[in-house]
UniProtKB/TrEMBL annotation:
This is Molybdopterin molybdenumtransferase. It comes from Streptomyces erythrochromogenes. It catalyses: adenylyl-molybdopterin + molybdate = Mo-molybdopterin + AMP + H(+). SUPFAM superfamilies: MoeA C-terminal domain-like (SSF63867), MoeA N-terminal region -like (SSF63882), Molybdenum cofactor biosynthesis proteins (SSF53218). Residues 1-12 have a biased composition (Low complexity).
Length: 410
């Protein structure tokens, strides 16, 4: 074969330059799905038993049951006379709450009785004091009450062994009183998850009016109170600077006395946002990468190999509030063994900028049988949330006057 000539030689093509890889796209989860994932991600904390006085705000680890009937005995529901047979009735004595009248009543007999006192054997009913006419001769007259009138029967409220409140219920004053009335001195509970708040940002001032080019930290004061309202235990706030790089990693990994670390700011992809890189380097399991809602969409939830949870919240105050209700609140509920509370759906009126394909969370105020949108809900502005009664999660297809789920504004 003859050698190639200049006319027949294959031309040398330029070597193409490598094309930079596009940054990974984060999948925006629907708002309701993100809340469900956050609640279901953790295993509930181990249960422990605490005195009633220490149980308020915690979560029942087991159903509350009554070991005895409620009420435990037949008791008078009115002040008056426990009567037997038809009248008039001869007074045999008196019985007060906390005492027992020994013996049994015969026909035509009665005892004076106080509300809550145990009714004697043989009692037909309780004649209210305002319907009775007591004479100087020791007799009482009045209309004959129907059998069982004004008597609370033993077990009428609950037979022995009845489950009164299910596991997973947050413990409030009424539950404490109910437990005491059943005879319980302690309760099995799941403790409140301990939450450390890390507020990032070199631009933040922490006292007084902010200086030129700076802003006052709103989340440092707000988030511990919100953590408590959501059922967690705040372990304080630490302020972390954007520089040097790695300062956030040290703060996150150093929070060993907590189950949850909530980081404000640093969730996006800017030059000073460290959180996503930190989680990738640590080998964290990402549960929620971002959420299809406004404001607050650059939020995240991840689990570190140590088992500690990291919730990434935006740095803007109202956006952070929205993200906390979306991920932090459900995560705390899951750690406590609580289900997500069902959200009431009510009509919402007012004007809001459309957000196609996204859930829009806005503060609302009760107005008649529905709610109306409260002014002042930019991502950095807390006026609407502070003045409103709740947050409405407007679905992507919401129209003026349509229903939307409501959740507490915290």
């Amino acid at each position: 074969m003859p050698p190639a000539t200049a006319a027949t030689a294959t031309p040398t093509l330029p070597v193409p330059l490598p094309v930079p890889a596009a940054p990974p796209r984060h999948r925006e989860l629907p708002w309701e799905q993100a809340r469900t994932l956050a609640q279901g991600a953790p295993r509930p904390s181990a249960a422990r038993t605490v005195p009633l006085a220490d149980a308020v705000g915690l979560t029942l680890a087991e159903a509350l049951r009554t070991p005895q009937p409620l009420p435990a005995f037949d008791t008078a529901a009115m002040d008056g006379y426990a009567v037997a047979g038809t009248g008039p009735w001869r007074i045999r004595g008196a019985v007060r709450a906390g005492t027992v009248w020994e013996g049994a009543l015969g026909a035509g007999e009665c005892v004076e009785i106080s509300t809550g006192a145990q009714v004697p054997a043989g009692t037909r009913a309780v004649l209210p004091v305002e319907a009775a006419l007591a004479g100087a001769d020791g007799m009482v007259a009045g209309p004959v009450p129907p059998p069982g009138r004004h008597i609370r029967r033993a077990g009428e409220d609950a037979p022995a062994g009845t489950g009164l409140v299910p596991a997973g219920t947050r413990i409030g004053p009424a539950l404490l009183g109910l437990a005491a009335s059943c005879g319980h001195d302690t309760l099995p509970v799941r403790p409140a998850p301990r939450v450390r708040v890390l507020v990032t940002g070199d631009e933040l001032d922490h006292a007084g009016p902010p200086g030129p080019g700076r802003v006052r930290d709103a989340l440092g004061p707000a988030l511990p109170a919100l953590v408590a309202a959501l059922g967690g235990e705040s372990r304080g706030v630490r302020h972390v600077r954007d520089r040097p790089a790695g300062s956030l990693a040290a703060a996150v990994h150093g929070a060993r006395d907590t189950e949850v670390v909530a980081v404000t700011g640093s969730t996006s992809a800017g030059a000073t946002d460290q959180l996503r890189g930190l989680l990738a380097e640590a080998g964290a399991r990402m549960v929620v990468d971002t959420v299809a809602c406004r404001p607050g969409h650059p939020m995240l939830l991840a689990e570190l190999p140590s088992g500690r949870w990291v919730v990434g919240l935006p740095g803007n105050p109202y956006a952070a509030l929205v993200a906390a209700h979306t991920l932090l609140g459900p995560l705390i509920a899951g750690l406590c063994g609580r289900a997500l509370d069902p959200l009431p759906r009510v009509p919402v009126t007012g004007s809001v900028r459309p957000a196609p394909g996204l859930t829009r969370l806005v503060p609302v105020t009760w107005y008649g049988t529905g709610v109306r949108i409260t002014a002042g809900h930019g991502s950095a502005f807390l006026r609407g949330a502070a003045a409103g009664d709740a947050l409405a999660a407007l679905p992507p297809d919401w129209t003026e006057g349509g229903p939307a789920p409501l959740l507490s504004a915290g």
